[in-house]
């Protein structure tokens, strides 16, 4: 995400100092991870590590080759307590490289600048590595550290330059004249990779929706409290605006059914109101059905949560909701989530929130995620506050936050 670390670290790390994305290299979809050396020398802040790990997670789940454009000074030392020691910290990057390589997911690195300390392991652990002559360097300890530790005085180029690693150490496999040459070599390497993993489902011809997707801003209200028919959203997302609804007359506050998106079959689970016990059972049934048929799942979240009250608790809504949450957690097919409105409380769990490992999660500009909605939060806060609290004013303040 280009917004990673926005407003953090006193604005010192825009984009978390790293650029990640999915693109085509020599016709092959790849995950690209590029250090931004203009941000603190490409060093890793806590959010930099998180963003790098997320890119590797995308590569692992989708079996995409990884291309690393390396220009990094390693961990950002003032924040090393949040970067270095824990499981999901800096070392996990190299763990992921090793395990993905072992699974046949290519790891390719191009050294375009300095690779110091931990940064040196990215090219060292790659399947193939390229380094730019007279520009790229790889060493565990730079010249100042070497002088302090051993007294040896050595230049960066002599210590870990392109000629050394291409001719003597063998750390790198290709020597490039400049950045452009290095990228051409990377493209050539990707072109030699084996065949793609075949999709486990048949892809249909792509069709544009009959209903205009440009109308979506007028379909979904800016105020999450305003109801709308989610079928109007589905009709503007799916191929040919065709949607084969499942259990249309049962549990009507959850809309489920089959469609195609860009030619790919999908099972859609979309909120159309608060979840009742019947809605949850319907959702669990449909999710299990898609899992058995190897149909990817698309969740459209706009959920205030599960229905509360004595009648519904007595009806076992907690157990019914748990069945849907279990179905989401255990589904083995690819899961994609789009938050098109509110996503509150346990409703987030039942609709495949981030904790349930969707391969991708998107949020529309009007979307909100929290334990409960602003109105409910204000009422709870007012209830525990002293008598005489202005509930309406509190609700307004919470809503604005």
Automatic annotation (TrEMBL):
Q: Which UniProt keywords apply?
A: Ligase, Transferase
Q: Determine the domain of life of the protein's source.
A: Bacteria
Citing just one GO molecular function, the answer is:
transferase activity
Q: What is its EC number?
A: 6.4.1.4
Domain (CoA carboxyltransferase C-terminal) ranges: 205-401
One Pfam family per UniProt: Carboxyl_trans
Q: Which residues form a coiled coil?
A: none
- Please give the biological process terms from Gene Ontology that the record holds: L-leucine catabolic process
Family matches, as InterPro entries = AcCoA_carboxyl_beta, ClpP/crotonase-like_dom_sf, COA_CT_C, COA_CT_N, MCCB/AccD1-like
Q: Domain CoA carboxyltransferase N-terminal: where?
A: 1-205
GO CC field: methylcrotonoyl-CoA carboxylase complex
Protein name per its UniProtKB record: Methylcrotonyl-CoA carboxylase carboxyl transferase subunit
Source organism of this protein record: uncultured Solirubrobacteraceae bacterium
């Amino acid at each position: 995400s280009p917004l990673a670390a926005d407003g953090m670290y006193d604005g010192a790390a825009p984009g978390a100092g790293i650029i990640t994305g999915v693109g085509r290299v020599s016709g092959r979809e790849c995950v690209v991870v590029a250090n931004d050396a203009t941000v603190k020398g490409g060093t890793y802040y806590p959010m930099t590590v998180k963003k790098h790990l997320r890119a590797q997670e995308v590569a692992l789940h989708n079996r995409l080759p990884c291309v690393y454009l390396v220009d990094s000074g390693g961990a950002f030392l003032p924040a090393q307590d949040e970067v270095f020691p824990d499981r999901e910290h800096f070392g996990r990057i190299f763990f992921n490289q090793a395990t993905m390589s072992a699974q046949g997911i290519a790891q390719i690195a191009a050294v375009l600048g300095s690779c110091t300390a931990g940064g040196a392991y990215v090219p060292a652990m790659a399947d193939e590595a390229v380094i730019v002559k007279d520009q790229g360097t790889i060493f565990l300890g730079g010249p100042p550290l070497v002088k302090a530790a051993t007294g040896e005085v050595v230049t960066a180029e002599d210590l870990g330059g392109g000629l050394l690693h291409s001719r003597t150490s063998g750390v790198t496999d290709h020597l490039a004249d400049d950045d452009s040459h290095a990228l051409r070599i990377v493209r050539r390497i990707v072109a030699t990779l084996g065949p793609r993993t075949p999709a486990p489902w048949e892809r249909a011809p792509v069709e544009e929706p009959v209903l205009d997707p440009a109308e979506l801003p007028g379909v979904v209200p800016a105020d999450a409290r305003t109801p709308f028919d989610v079928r109007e959203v589905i009709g503007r997302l799916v191929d040919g605006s065709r949607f084969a609804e499942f259990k249309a007359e049962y549990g009507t506050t959850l809309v489920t059914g089959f469609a195609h998106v860009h030619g790919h079959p999908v099972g859609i689970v979309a909120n159309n109101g608060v979840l009742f016990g019947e809605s949850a059972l319907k959702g669990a049934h449909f999710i299990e059905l898609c899992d058995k048929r190897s149909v990817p799942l698309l969740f459209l979240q706009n959920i205030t949560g599960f229905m509360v009250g004595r009648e519904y608790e007595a009806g076992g809504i907690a157990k019914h909701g748990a069945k849907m949450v279990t179905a989401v957690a255990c589904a083995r097919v690819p899961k994609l989530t789009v938050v098109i409105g509110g996503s509150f409380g346990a409703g987030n769990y039942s609709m495949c929130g981030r904790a349930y490992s969707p391969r991708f999660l998107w949020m529309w500009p009007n979307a909100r995620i929290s334990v409960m909605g602003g109105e409910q939060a204000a009422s709870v806060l007012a209830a525990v506050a002293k008598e005489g609290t202005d509930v309406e004013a509190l609700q307004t303040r919470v809503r604005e936050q």
